[in-house]
Amino acid sequence: MHLIVESMLADAIKSLLKNDIDLASDVIVRDRDVDRHYLLVLKRLQEMVATPFSEASDIAANESLSTTSPPFHSSESPITGLK
Prior knowledge:
The protein is an all-alpha fold. The protein has one domain (about 1-65). It has 3 helices and no strands. Helix 1 runs antiparallel to helix 2 (about 20-50). The longest helix has 30 residues, at about 20-50. It is rod-shaped, with a radius of gyration of 22 Å. The two termini are about 40 Å apart.
């Protein structure tokens, strides 16, 4: 997202220097897209924070995320599988 914003800034400056209304309009369209993307990311982060850990674990299990790695024993590290 930051790359889009950087290009928007460069294009906004260029549109001012060259008095390019079409380029300025394009920057406005991209700004609205970035705003929508930001709000979507923010909403998802808020949902993640509001979801209790046990519920999030259940969701992960239902999405088969937990079946991609072998189970570990409680005495092992869940990251390395070492005791």
